[in-house]
Amino acid sequence: MTTSNTHTLDVFRSTIEVMLVDGVLTREEKRLIIKLASALKLESDEPAAIYEAIQKKVESEKGQNVSPEMAREVYTRVFEVAIVNASLSRDEFRVLAHLRNVFDIEDHEHEKIETELREIVKEKFEDPG
Question: How far is 81 from 96, CA to CA, in rounded Å?
């Protein structure tokens, strides 16, 4: 899992940069940004400050350290937003791959999280009758 060198604002910034590779923020990416900011416990002004720093090509603050537990929680919460759709878009897949890399989430850990989330989604949306 993640090391002590991973920081909240660095993760947020690098994820936004991944999203902006194609020059467009899709609706799916915007949903993921909102969930990511919430899961990272960013202050209300921090996402805009990071976006502005990216646009101006200037350094930004690193933020708080991300513990392995927090990394798993953040990844799970963002993945949950993405998995609600029947299939992941290319943009969502790219964001999740980036977060897996940043947080050092191994294949077996990802599969465990995915299985848990698919069960939750299935229970939420399954017809009870």
Answer: 11
